[in-house]
Write a structure and sequence with these properties.
Chain C: Keywords: Amino-acid transport, ATP-binding, Nucleotide-binding, Transport. The structure holds three protein chains of three kinds. Chain A is built from 13 helices and eleven strands. By secondary structure, chain A is of the alpha/beta class. A seven-stranded mixed β-sheet of chain A has the order 4-3-5-6-7-10-11, sandwiched between helices. In chain A, strands 1-2 form a two-stranded parallel sheet. In chain A, helix 2 packs parallel to helix 3, helix 8 runs parallel beside helix 9 and helix 11 crosses helix 12. The two termini of chain A are 30 Å apart. Chain B is mainly alpha-helical. Chain B folds into two domains: 293 residues, ABC transporter involved in vitamin B12 uptake, BtuC, CATH 1.10.3470; 327 residues, ABC transporter involved in vitamin B12 uptake, BtuC. Chain B contains 24 helices and six strands. In chain B, helix 9 packs parallel to helix 11, helix 14 crosses helix 23 and helix 19 packs across helix 20. Chain B is globular. Chain C has a domain of 122 residues: P-loop containing nucleotide triphosphate hydrolases (Rossmann fold). Helices cover 34% and strands 26% of the residues of chain C. In chain C, the strands form two sheets. Chain C has a six-stranded mixed β-sheet, sandwiched between helices. A four-stranded antiparallel β-sheet of chain C has the order 2-1-4-5, covered by helices on one side. In chain C, a hairpin with a 2-residue loop joins strand 1 and strand 2. The radius of gyration of chain C is 18 Å and the shape is globular. Classes of the chains: A alpha/beta, B mainly alpha, C alpha/beta. Chains in contact: A-B, B-C.
């Protein structure tokens, strides 16, 4: 869990640890989880090699991990080949879209779900003249197409006045910022993740872009992003995959566990790690068999509990139906990095694309 | 119009930071021939020190950081020179590349250890926040500060170089170190100073850039390649060149990004290749100096004739025998993972063998070998997806494509020598790396998936995933069948290459490695021989890449990443170049240790990096020079350091 | 240790073997240079002349044998130390710093002079009329002859006790050859000790007091200039000169 996504990987791991703790402590489950963690450097080849090691040497039947979508996809096909159950952490649509298979179950919310919740909200609340800037890789491209689609579907007068792309891992966005500043755009949608997003927003705020253009990004409200940006994040909008304030008993339990074990509040990656373990464990319990071949047949469509409350891996593509919120970063009471104000919510069923639009055949 | 002007300022902002990084890199190279890969990490260290200093002191913290962080990093840089690089002077620059590679791993891990993996940020001082109006449009005050500060610092260094005695010696040393010594000047006394000051300037760049973007552990590796391009573009060792190159690259990158996004990531490398082809010494480099440096660079190669023929045969047979029985123990003695990891090792060994052909035999330091490996992998995958699933056809095409590209790259680059060759191959590799991101048909960042490789040809055959054999109690899984195929290919390739190397072609290559001038006088076509070796090597690397694609079932752009080329050189030197089997052994040891260490130790890179550093300093001829089968030291031909003032260290 | 004569030579090589890696170029050569004399070392291309100089300077360490300078062994010294002791090399390809101005090229020698007084930069440059008025031009702008002159001037600034000239007239036009030879003669008349390596036999005998002929790493002739001029056999068989 290193490389560009490294910081996020360690949060995900904290979620896993708590999930395992929960299962192993609880009487509800007739089995315990014995976990081994490996480090993938966020390189696809290493991810695959490590997966191979976990399956062949450590005899693991269940794998989960990888914040990187490319690595998640690589292990998708590996899981099918090796017949093990795989819960990927990547957010690209493809993972439970064209690259889906019956062995791969995603507890994480994908970028298409966020687009369905957040996209239509933008023209209704911010404006119709937009700019889309995205990183030139699968996630960024997903954002570009899905937001264009969702915004235009909700308001035909939406006009994308310009689009620009940067390389993954770019560190200097000044030229794009100048272009956006000099355009008619009222808002910009950023299809950037992690460090790219942080750097972009920081430079945009320094250049004064925030005064004329509203900055939005599907991951803008993520804890890691807010922490890194400090006050610079105030007044920006984002999709919210998870918020520690969500009012479900399961979430309260999760937040308590988290605070007890680590400092601060869990983030979306920790949530996904936790649910990856918990939801799968319920599948194993229901199947009454720890063999992944049985579980992969019973888990789709099964109603399971999650941090969000009741949830299911949809039968058509094994995607968890997680709710999504729209959030705004506001100055925090304690000062320092901003906190999230939740503005609107889409339920899991609303946020997920209908099965007919999912390019997946199981 | 104002947009263009603003873009120029944007370009200058980043360009000035490049200048601060490249200036030290270039002068360090000029004065001491050290290609410092860890320069980027020292730059990152500057930004991290700034984080620690800026936070507790609030507003004035930034100014404090701007003074203290470079000082601290300067001291660290001086210590690095004194304790790790100093023992290596007089050896081929390759050893310093390798050593500084080790330093990259160590410093990067120390950064993670002290500051964590999370992206962090610190703000510039409040007095520089916001933007001001210039020429009728508003521009970020902090960016203007970066430009002013960077230019002022560069100006101060320029003044120091031109108007002080020390500056005079450093400039002269960068142009012709040997002559400076001839005049009674102990140039090595200046090395620590140059390294320290160079590191400090880079750190200052890190501080100002840190206030502009976020600070992450990756910031060091991401800046080092553009910095090299700038140094080569401007002319190795030239301060003026570093300034001009840095500003040029900053502006060109920024303008390309806004006006010709298709060329983003390519244009700088293409520019560098073009400049090197037209004026190999760079824009401000000094051609005479480069000539003078050319003959110095002989590598420490292991000797081929260590064991008697029959002993060698026995050792070889034992290794092959061991490889053949490995799968028989799976599920009994160990898990099938052993077969997977050994398959990986075999592929890397083949790849390392290909590098040794050019590195150990033709004396060409290729830092872009991942290009051929990647081309082989992509060609194989594309063939199997679109043309035929036949493994045989795909691999043959992989070899052909890689060899053709090797011919073209060789044709263009073999005319430049030494370190310029290393840089130009690196640039070509970066071009391919960036190209695969650009197109859908190469899978962009996602890579290529979904082929069903088959043994056989023209649709007749068995899928690789289905072919398993069983005879009585022994059953061989499909992965094991593929494993045996790898063993056969690796052994045959080794024997073939060895055959070629004992043939006249190989002897000529060796004589070229010893002395190009002499070989030319004797009447060999040095360039043609080197190019042929390069093509052979490229083809072999392509084969390795193709096998990787089949074995893994996918390819992604990281097969073309420069770190892969770097790791390959590490493996080759670790094993012992110029021996063919040494680099293969090095690949095995490297992969094994990486796999082992990364499982048990979080800071495994630091451990691996330290091992490399010790190896490079104390055992430059690689593992083959320490093995027990070398106990008969009398017959080892120690061709250590064909360099002037050679110091044979250990014996 | 080698032979110890009644008086100490300024420079004495005794059975020096040296080369590059395992290729031995010098197969045990012995020679001496005394204070105030000009000694010429001549031989064909590849005879080992430059290797001899590189070994004296400390670029190469002899595998066996000793090099005594003023009576103490300098064979293990490094280049800068050798130069500081007063042995100054004007290398074959001049090695002018191309990016430094003419003045800086000469001035840098001041840095290395530690124990002995060198020439003043202006005095050294004024020896060469060709360099006049070009003091601020970069070294790369000079012609071959000018480079040679600057290289000699630079050497003088470092205050040589033994000036080692490697092929000073190589590749120069006849008129310039005469000019450079004139300067060397001038330096000789001022009492400077010079070790001159030359392929141009005519120039060498014009300037030298004694001559060594080197062939395939061995000294095949040693004697005064007169003895050399008289020995047709040597000239014919080792230098390919017949009259």
């Amino acid at each position: 869990m290193e490389g560009p996504y490294s910081g996020l990987g360690s949060n995900q791991r904290e979620g896993y640890e708590l999930g395992i703790q929960k299962i192993n402590e609880s009487d509800e489950f007739d089995f315990t989880i014995d976990a081994t963690f490996e480090n993938t450097k966020s390189e696809v080849s290493t991810a695959r090699q490590k997966a191979q090691k976990l399956v062949q040497q450590d005899d693991k039947d269940y794998l989960s991990g990888c914040v990187s979508s490319a690595a998640s996809l690589a292990i998708n096909s590996f899981a099918q080949e090796q017949e093990i159950l795989w819960v990927p952490g990547g957010g690209a649509i493809q993972i439970t879209g064209s690259g889906c298979n019956e062995w791969s179950f995603r507890a994480e919310t994908h970028s298409g779900q966020i687009a369905r919740a957040f996209g239509p909200w933008i023209p209704k609340n911010i404006g119709t003249q937009g700019w889309i800037h995205y990183a030139d890789y699968s996630y960024g491209k997903d954002i570009n197409t899905s937001f264009t689609e969702q915004m235009q579907a909700s308001d035909a007068s939406v006009n994308i006045v310009g689009r620009s792309t940067s390389q993954l891992g770019a560190t200097n966005f000044s030229s794009y910022i100048s272009q956006i500043e000099n355009s008619e755009a009222e808002f910009v949608v950023l299809g950037l993740a992690g460090g790219d997003l942080i750097t972009f927003v920081k430079q945009a705020v320094d250049a004064g872009l925030k005064e004329t253009v509203t900055i939005t990004s599907p991951t803008m409200c993520m804890q890691a992003i807010r922490n890194a940006l400090g006050e610079a994040a105030n007044g920006t909008y984002g999709g919210v995959r998870y918020d520690p304030k969500i009012d479900t008993p399961a979430n309260q339990d999760f937040v308590e566990r988290y605070q007890e074990e680590y400092d601060g509040n869990p983030d979306a990656f920790a949530r996904a790690g936790f649910d990856a373990i918990w939801m799968t464990a319920q599948g194993i319990q229901e199947a009454d068999d720890t063999g992944p071949a049985t579980v992969k047949d019973s888990l789709p469509g099964q109603e399971v509990s999650s941090v969000f409350g009741s949830n299911t891996y949809r039968e058509c593509n094994n995607q968890a139906t997680n709710p999504v919120w729209v959030g705004r970063n506001v100055p925090s009471d304690q000062g320092g990095s901003s906190s999230v104000e939740l503005l609107s919510q889409k339920s899991g069923q609303e946020a997920v694309a209908p099965c007919s639009e999912v390019n997946c055949s199981l | 119009m104002s947009l263009l002007f603003e873009q120029l300022l944007n370009g200058l902002t980043i360009g000035v930071v490049y200048v601060l990084i490249a200036a030290g890199l270039s002068v360090i190279f000029g004065v001491m021939d050290v290609i410092n890969f860890s320069h980027g990490e020292l730059f990152a260290l500057g930004a991290y020190f700034a984080i620690s200093l800026a936070a507790p002191f609030g507003g004035p913290g930034f100014w404090l950081a701007l003074v203290v962080a470079p000082l601290l990093v300067g001291i660290i840089g001086a210590a690095i020179e004194r304790f790790t690089i100093r023992p290596l002077y007089g050896r081929n620059p390759l050893y310093q590349i390798l050593l500084t590679f080790g330093l990259v791993l160590v410093i990067a891990d120390i950064i993670v250890l002290l500051w964590g993996r999370q992206q962090q940020q610190f703000s510039g001082p409040p007095s520089l926040a916001g933007s001001i109006q210039i020429f009728g449009f508003s521009y970020s005050l902090y960016n203007l500060f970066i430009i002013t500060f960077g230019l002022a610092l560069a100006g101060a260094i320029w003044y120091g170089l031109n108007n002080t005695r020390v500056g005079l010696v450093i400039r002269a040393g960068a142009q012709d170190r040997e002559m400076v010594q001839n005049l009674g000047i102990e140039i090595d006394r200046y090395y620590t100073l140059v390294f320290g000051v160079g590191s400090a300037i880079a750190a200052a760049g890190g501080v100002v850039l840190g206030g502009y973007q976020s600070v992450s552990p990756a910031m060091g590796h991401s800046v080092i390649i553009p910095a090299f391009v700038i140094v080569v573009l401007g002319g190795l060792g030239s301060f003026r060149g570093a300034v001009a190159g840095g500003l040029l690259v900053g502006v060109i990158q920024t303008l390309t990004r806004s006006y010709v996004p298709l060329l983003e990531g390519l244009v700088v490398f293409l520019l560098m290749i073009a400049v090197l082809l037209v004026k190999p010494s760079g824009l401000f480099g000094d051609p005479e100096w480069q000539e003078a440096g050319g003959e110095h660079t002989t590598l420490s190669t292991g000797s081929g004739g260590i064991l008697s023929k029959s002993q060698r045969l026995r050792v070889g047979a034992t290794v092959v025998g061991a490889l053949l029985v490995i799968p028989l123990g799976t599920n009994v003695l160990y898990s099938p993972y052993i077969v997977s990891i050994t398959s990986d090792i075999l592929i890397w060994a083949l790849f390392a063998l290909s590098l040794d052909l050019v590195l150990g035999y033709a004396g060409l330091v290729s830092l872009g070998h991942a290009m051929f490996y990647g081309l082989g992998a992509y060609t194989t995958m594309l063939t199997m997806i679109h043309l035929t699933p036949s493994v045989l056809v795909a691999l043959v095409l992989a070899i052909i494509v890689a060899a053709i590209i090797a011919w073209v790259v060789g044709y263009l680059s073999i005319r430049v020598s030494g370190i310029y060759f290393a840089m130009i191959t690196l640039a070509f590799a970066q071009v391919f790396y960036n190209l695969v991101y650009k197109f859908e048909w190469t899978g962009s960042s996602q890579g290529l998936y979904g082929a069903t490789p088959m043994y056989g040809i023209a649709g007749i055959g068995v899928a690789v995933g289905d072919l398993s054999l069983s005879a009585g109690p022994i059953s061989i899984s499909s992965a094991e069948v593929f494993y045996y195929l790898l063993v056969v290919i690796a052994v045959c390739s080794f024997l073939l290459v060895r055959r070629i190397m004992v043939a006249p072609f190989g002897s000529v290559l060796k004589s070229i490695r010893e002395s190009q001038k002499r070989s030319r006088f004797v009447g060999y076509n040095v360039t043609a021989h080197k190019r042929n070796a390069f093509v052979l090597s490229g083809g072999l690397a392509g084969l390795a890449g193709g096998l990787y694609a089949i074995s893994n079932g996918f390819v992604s752009p990281d097969v073309l990443h420069w770190l892969r080329s770097g790791e390959l050189v590490v493996m080759a030197v670790l094993g012992g170049i110029g021996t063919l089997y040494g680099p293969m052994l090095g690949a095995g040891v490297f992969i094994f240790f990486e796999d082992l260490l990364s499982t048990y130790i979080e800071q495994w890179r630091m451990v691996l990096g330290t091992i490399f550093i010790l190896f490079v300093i104390y055992i430059p001829r690689g593992i083959v020079s320490i093995g027990p089968y070398l106990r008969d030291r009398g017959i080892i031909d120690i061709t250590e350091q064909k360099f002037e003032r050679s110091e044979i260290d250990d014996d | 240790m080698g032979s110890s004569n009644s008086h100490t030579h300024l420079l004495e090589l005794d059975d020096v073997r040296s080369g590059y890696g395992e290729t031995e170029v010098l197969n045990g050569i012995s020679m001496t240079v005394d204070e105030g004399e000009v000694v010429a070392l001549i031989g064909r291309n590849g005879a080992g002349k430059t290797t001899t100089l590189r070994t004296i300077m400390g670029h190469l360490v002899p595998t066996t044998g000793t090099i005594n300078y003023r009576g103490s062994d300098i064979s293990q010294r490094d280049v800068a130390k050798t130069a500081q002791q007063g042995i100054t090399l004007v290398p074959e390809d001049r090695q002018i710093f191309p990016g430094l101005s003419i003045r800086e090229n000469a001035k840098i020698s001041e840095v290395g002079t530690t124990h002995n007084e060198g020439w003043d930069v202006d005095d050294a440059l004024s020896l060469f009329a060709n360099l006049e008025g070009k003091e601020n031009r970069p070294g790369s702008a000079l012609s071959g002859g000018e480079q040679q002159m600057l290289a000699i001037a630079r050497a003088l600034v470092s205050g040589p006790e033994l000036l080692v000239l490697d092929e000073p007239t190589e590749g120069l036009a006849p008129k310039i050859v005469d000019e450079v030879a004139g300067i060397i003669a001038d330096l000789k008349s001022r009492g400077l000790t010079i070790l001159l390596v030359e392929q141009n036999v005519e120039t060498a005998i014009e300037l030298a007091d004694r001559v060594y002929v080197l062939d395939r790493g061995e000294i095949v002739f040693e004697g005064t200039t007169e003895e050399f001029t008289a020995d047709e056999n040597i000239k014919e068989s080792y230098l390919g000169i017949s009259e």
